[in-house]
Amino acid sequence: MTILRSREIIPKSSPKTLKSRIIEPPTPKQFHEDSKAISSPSSSPAQKPELDSVSVSGTGRRRSLRLASKFKVADEDVRKDSISGRRRERESESGEIGMNRNSEKDSSSDSDAENVDGKIGGNGIARVLDSREKKARVFSTVEERVSVSVEADMGIKVIEDGIGKAIMGLGESGLMVEEVRGLKETELVSIGDGENEEVKEKHGRNLGKLGLSSDSGSFRRRSERIMTASDAKGKRKLGIDLNSPSLDLEVDDGRDKGLLSLGSRVAKRRMQGIGVDSNGIEDHGGEDKESKGSLNDEIGEGVDVDKKERDPAADESSPVDGKRSYSSEEKGKGKLVKDSWLSIGIDPVKLDLEPEAEDLIEAAVSGLIQLLETVPLEEKKRHAEVTARIKASRRRQYKEMFQDTARQNASRFAHFHTEEEEDHPSSSETEREIPSVEADPEIEDWPGPFSTAMKIIKERAMNLNVLPKNLKSDVSKPAPLIEWMPSKDEDRNRSKPSVPSLQDLCLNILAKNAEAIASLEHVPDVLRHKLSQLLCDSRRMDSHFMSLLVNGAPTEIRINDCSWITEEQFTRIFKGCDLSNLMVLQLDLCGRCMPDDILPATLAHSPNSLPALSYLSLRGACRLSDIGLNALVASAPTIRSLNLSQCSFLTSTSIIILADSLGSVLRELYIDDCQNIDVMLILPALKKIEHLEVLSVTGIQTVCDDFVSDLITLHGPNMKELVLADCVIVSVNHVPLTTMDVFIGCRKLTNASLKVIAENCPGLYVLNLINLRKLTDSAIRYLANGCRKIHTLKLCRNTFSDEAIAAFLEASGESLKELSLNNVSKVGHNTAISLARCSRKLLSLDLSWCRNLTDEALGLIVDSCLSLRLLKLFGCTQQDFDKKLDKYHAVDRGLLVSPG
Amino acid sequence: MKKEDTVKLISEEGFEFVIHKNAAMVSQTIRNMLTSSGSFAETQHGVVTFPEIRTVILEKVCQYFYWSLQSASGNKTEFHIEPQLSMELMMAANYLHT
């Protein structure tokens, strides 16, 4: 790798982490090998020592290195911070990175439990664990303020993830780290062409700073540099505290070295990690990787240089590289340095700077204290090449994280496992270590169905996992593990091809000729609803049909999509209509036509004008304010179910008034995305609603634990449905319901809340864990042990491991009807086998973006899940599955496979 | 057609449609009527009356039965429905659960 940023790593006296393999940075950005030294002690899992912060000691050793160490330091911190913030995936991956420092970080690390090889406290090397593979967590020696996370790989990763955070997290000392992070980010960003904006933001600045502090001069300088570097990137949050005295300076030579080496390792790792991350982060695309790669490249270099190099580096880093860098990171410590720098945004071209990476890193991390655990230089070297690719964003992230975690866990990681990433079982062990390490006491193994299942899975995996590991290939394992051939047996046709029903045929014709319909008299409500739905779907709903619906004295008016109605039409249609029998009124997406003043003229013209109304849905009534709602409620005193989702004008006042008038009858209340409602303020009102059975507060950010616990305490026995998606809810206490839907989509939700839910809701049927990045396998464990009756489980972008999901399926997946593993990228052969064995009732399965599944695995699933009706495979690049599907006779079963 | 294989469907105007039992079984409602364990007249005589379904509609329904059988056995064609019949046909199909 030839990315060399003139980053000098200010050697700090980081005694423990100095492993000191000083990598001669091929480019000015090379991480100083010092960082390696620093990192070595800290990075136990040497896989990807993305030392966010390489403690840059001001020793001459660093000086000699071209890489500014500032980056490292920043990385660590950044990592930490970034971890908590940024990329979801990264976070999960690099969760550990550097986050250890702060307890908060820990949580983020926890989420990445698996990946955390062990947070290296303080001087630990943040290892960035590749989400794909077992991410190496980059522990940055957070303590040391800012150490440029030399580990390009790791750092970069971290950076991407928000190294800034990591560094920030470093807190006391870590301002620099933050800067480093920022630096990294900037670098990363620049490398990645701003791909990882968010991450980069954080990291960039840090990184930038790192880069800036290439000279091993004063710590201050470094931080400043880093700052500037990050500024380049712009928005990164630069947590660098320039004034923190210990910044950088603390990074002693040893640390710097370690960091550097770590950095290079990190870089490598980061590359890998980034690559991996990138892979994992499908949505991010390869950009991340590239950015990472570039970042890695840059790791060794100063910010200024980095920037330039970043872009090219970004190009080079590719997802594959990322992966490869991961492995190489594992192998070569030297590369780490490079990699970490690379991730900072070193051009991919420079990635070959591996041998120098370390040096670069060290050099680059000038002033950043990178706490790198004992990331062996060898690793770095290996990774260097790889990391080069990923570098860009990963580096940064990793750096930060690494720094943080390294700092915190340095002592714990006296050695690291180089094969961690490659070895799933080991990685899972590692991951498991991490939770324990991370002060996550709940992740203790206790006897239960999940543990049993896990053992089975592991044994299975171990037995099957006899293939030579191919680091570069991510399908090496599944392919031989599932030997399944499409059956040629015609008898496998299980059901006849379905014939459209006469009713459907007629509905379609009616929908096509809706304008010719003269009357909907005598048409049952069900059919009216279906017809109206068809029309809305095809955008052919018009006022003619709507007036048909409103004519007579309808009992139900359901219109899914009222976005086409103007106020005039609405008034015309509803004026003078007989709504005395109306029991159901659904006017979704009526924002355009429903300002407050229209209601008195139409629906709410008098109190009790809707005497029979029991279900009212005004989703998306964005112009409806408190006044309008009050008028409506006054005219419909018997409402039992009220859906006010996305009515963003509503405030807590309206809910309070609502509770006053409907307190005795209201059963269901949906106030999703009503951001102006503070749930704590309406808590008394909710308590006043005596029979509340369904409450949906999706997306409201003021939802918190207290709210839930208060609510559940009162309404628990009645609660049938509690929708808490995208909230900060963490725990749900004492909900002894038999049927309870709990949707939780909050990003900050951790295992603790899952534990509470699992313990208290044994009858849980539906669980939605979409986007909960912080959950780890422990959460799955709780679920498996506690919620045995789940029939709908939605996971998306979670970071559960293959084994965990497989074990869950074995333990509690018997009654599953609908399962979504969208973007749960680790899903692999274990899950496939478990699905085949245990999921007899499964009707709908979403395996989008699960690219670790081979064709054979998919075929096995299709053939074995006899009830399967819908299989979603978006983003799965398995080729020819459609063709094989025919052979599998899946379509004959009526199985709908989408896409295709 | 043997008598044992057929059922008779009587429309509102009194028209009688004699169709195969298999065809009639396409309708879940008729299937339940004919196979119920109780001693219903329908079961015993194989006759079902539909006082609410007009002849035209019932005829179309019977045509649909046969088309459905053919489709199930692979011979997929299009079943044409006159739009003016579609409303009533839809309601009849809803009632007949077909």
TrEMBL record, chain A:
Source organism superkingdom: Eukaryota
One GO CC term, this protein: SCF ubiquitin ligase complex
Low complexity composition-biased segments: 207-217
Annotated F-box/LRR-repeat protein 15-like leucin rich repeat domain residues: 748-876
Composition-biased stretches (Basic and acidic residues): 1-10, 72-93, 281-292, 304-313, 321-332, 424-435
SUPFAM superfamilies: RNI-like (SSF52047)
Any one GO BP annotation for this protein: SCF-dependent proteasomal ubiquitin-dependent protein catabolic process
Residue segments, region Disordered: 1-123, 202-222, 271-332, 417-448
UniProt cross-references to InterPro entries, sorted A to Z: FBXL15_LRR, Leu-rich_rpt_Cys-con_subtyp, LRR_dom_sf
Pfam families: DUF7885 (PF25372)
Gene3D superfamilies noted in UniProt: Ribonuclease Inhibitor
Protein name: F-box/LRR-repeat protein 15-like leucin rich repeat domain-containing protein
Species, as recorded: Tetracentron sinense
UniProtKB/TrEMBL annotation, chain B:
Main location as per UniProt: nucleus
Annotated CDD domains: BTB_POZ_EloC
Any one GO biological process: jasmonic acid mediated signaling pathway
SKP1 component POZ domain span: 6-66
The name this protein goes by in its record: Elongin-C
InterPro entries: ELC1, SKP1-like, SKP1/BTB/POZ_sf, Skp1_comp_POZ
Compartment annotation: Nucleus
Keyword hit for Nucleus: yes
SUPFAM superfamilies named among the record's database cross-references: POZ domain
Protein family according to the UniProt entry: Belongs to the SKP1 family.
SMART domains, sorted: Skp1
Keywords for this protein: Nucleus
Pathway: Protein modification; protein ubiquitination
One GO term describing the cellular component: nucleus
